[in-house]
Amino acid sequence: MSSASERKDFESTKKMKGVMFKYFTELENGPAQGKKTAWCTSVGPAELLRALGFNVYFPENHGAMLGATRMATDLIPLANARGFSPDICSYLTSDVGSYLKGESPLQKMKLSGPPKADVLVFNTNQCRDVKDWFQFYAREWDVPCIGVHTPRSIGDVSDSIIDDVARQIEGLVEPLEQVAGEKLDPKKLREVVDLSRQCTELWKAVLQAAVNVPSPLTFFDGTIQMGPAVVLRGHVDAIEYYRGLVDELQQRIADGVAAVEDETHRIYWEGMPVWGKLSGLSGLFMQLKTSVVASTYCNSWIFDDLDPDDPYKSMARAYSSIFICRSEDAKQKYIEEMAERYGIDGILYHDAKTCPNNSNNRYQLPQRLQAKLDKPYLVINGDLNDLRLYSEEQTKTNIEAFVEQLAET
Ligand code: SF4
Fold first, then answer.
1. pLDDT per residue as tens digits for the range 257-267
2. Which candidate in 9, 127, 155, 177 could, as Cys together with 327 as Cys, close a disulfide (CB 3.0–4.6 Å)?
3. Which domain holds residue 273?
4. Substitution candidate for ligand 1 out of 66, 85, 92, 135 with most atoms within 8 A of CB
5. If DSSP codes are grouped into helix, strand and coil, which group holds residue 170?
6. Pocket of ligand 1 (CB under 6 A)
7. Of all atoms in ligand 1, which is nearest to the CA of residue 384?
8. CATH at 287
C-alpha cells in the first residue's frame, strides 16, 4: 500500500525503462555496426540527423541523469579545475566532470558510458553553453562541431527569422553528409519529421491530461516520462510508448485517480527541475495536497509547428518558438495562457544559479504575472544539478509557507 507522500507510478514506466535501455544499447553498439553517432542539443535539428542515418545522442539527458543520481555534485569540481567556472551550466560541468573521471550513470545499466561523437550539432536557441560544451568534445576528439545560431529574446517569430534559421539548418546538410558518408534522402527527412510530429502530439496529450481536476499526473511524473520525447523524437519507439501512456492516463481520469490524494491546490513550476531532489519535493507537495500540474520545462518538448511537407521551415519555426528563446512579453503571455488552461492557484519559480537562461524570475516576470493574474508566487533558489546551491530546509519552509498562503487566498 502506498503512503500519502509516495508518488503513484505508471504501469507504463516499466516499459519506458526497456525503451530507454534499447536506445542506449543501440548507441553503444552503433560503431561496431557501422553506424555514426551525432551529438545533438535538446532542441537541435535531430530530425535531420536521424534522416541521415546517425544514432543521435543528447548530452543534456545525460546531464539530467547525473543530477538525478546525485553524481553531479562530486563531478562538477573536476570540470572547474579544468577552467570551467562553477557559475556556468551545471549540466556542462557535471558532464565534463563525468568524462574526465570516466564515471557515468549509464554504467549502472552495464553500458560503458556516453558514446563518442563523430559530429556534434548544436542550436543556440537555448543558450551559448551548449556550443561551448560541444566545442570541448570537438577539441578532445578532433571531430566537427557545427550548428545553428538562433536569435534570442524573440518577440514575434517573423518570416525573416524563420528564413534565416531554415537556411542555417539546410546549410548543415552538406557537412553532415560528408560525416555520414551518405546523401540525404528528402523523403526520409519528411518521414522523420512526421514521426517527430506524432511524438509531439502524444507528449502534448500526456501533459494536457493534467488539465483534469484532480490531475492524474504531476510535473514530477512529467520529468520522468519525458525521456522518450527528448531522446527518441523522430523514432517510432517514442510514439508507441506514449500511446500506451495516454491510454493509462485516460483510464486514471475515468477512474478518478488523482496523482495527489485530496488535491487542494494546483501550481505551476517555472524553471528547471532540481534533479537530485525530485522525489523529496514530490513527497512534500503530496503531503501538502498540492499538485504541480504544469511546467514550462516539460512543455518545452512540444513542437506544434513541425510539418513533414515543409521540413526545413517548420523545424526552424518549431525550434525558434520555444519558450526559452522568446521575449519577456511572449513568456508572460505563454504563462498567462497556461495558468488559465490548467486552473492554477500559484506559480513557483526556480532560480537555478547556473542556468540564467531557464530562470525566469530575474526580470520582473513574477511581479507582472501576479499583477495580471492575481495569483501568489514563490521563488526558490537552487540549481538543476549542483546541490551545493540548494538548501533543502529553506526550500521546505518556503514551500510550506507558500501553500499556507494559497489556502488563505
Ligand atoms: S539551457 Fe541552462 S541547463 Fe540547459 S544547457 Fe543551457 S545553461 Fe545548461
1. 999 999 999 99
2. 155
3. 189-408
4. 92
5. helix
6. 60, 89, 91, 126-127, 129-130, 355, 357-358, 384
7. 3
8. 3.40.50.11900
